[in-house]
From TrEMBL:
Residues 3-173 form the Bacterial bifunctional deaminase-reductase C-terminal domain. One of its GO terms (molecular function) is 5-amino-6-(5-phosphoribosylamino)uracil reductase activity. SUPFAM superfamilies: Dihydrofolate reductase-like (SSF53597). This is Dihydrofolate reductase. GO terms for biological process: riboflavin biosynthetic process. It comes from Mucilaginibacter terrenus. Pfam families: RibD_C (PF01872). It comes from the Bacteria. InterPro entries: DHFR-like_dom_sf (IPR024072), RibDG_C (IPR002734), Riboflavin_Biosynth_HTPR (IPR050765).
Amino acid sequence: MREIISFMHISLDGFVAGPNGEMNWIKVDEELFNHVGKRIGETDAALYGRVTYDMMESYWPTAADSPDASKHDIEHSAWYKGARKVVLSKTLKGADLPNTTIISDDLAENINKLKQTDGSEILLFGSPSATHALIQENLIDGYWLFVNPVILGEGIPLFTNIKHKVKVKLKLVPGSRQFTCGVTELNYMVDKQ
């Protein structure tokens, strides 16, 4: 069965974006891009909320076409164009979107069907609202977090209004690391025992 892994940058105090969705506090460098790119390259599917999907769709399909495209832009653009994309949205329309499936209702049923398909893990990129919806349904199998050396004080929290009130035990995956830019990777899987 495929697993859904939430991939997020997070502040030390637990926010994934500033109060207005700002992400200018996220630290990235070549070392981090290369590390993330390796794992993403082993994945064949991405899950997004509509806002993140719109942002990705506005940049990645043509990012490699720019004359000053970085190595990261070229590689991620190629991956993005080939990856299966799943978007959680009640408003997005367009059954003709290339290699894209829209889930607008019956979230748990549709995600569980998706998990039964062939392929690698499914990375849930950013998308705080989509992440919150999946947390409510206990559908996330792991968290791939990049803790940034910043305290925001306010913003959009990763874990908020969790209704199921059930403890979710996590196991730290060996190999987490610290990057020279000060970001620390933490990779947790849900302990299903």
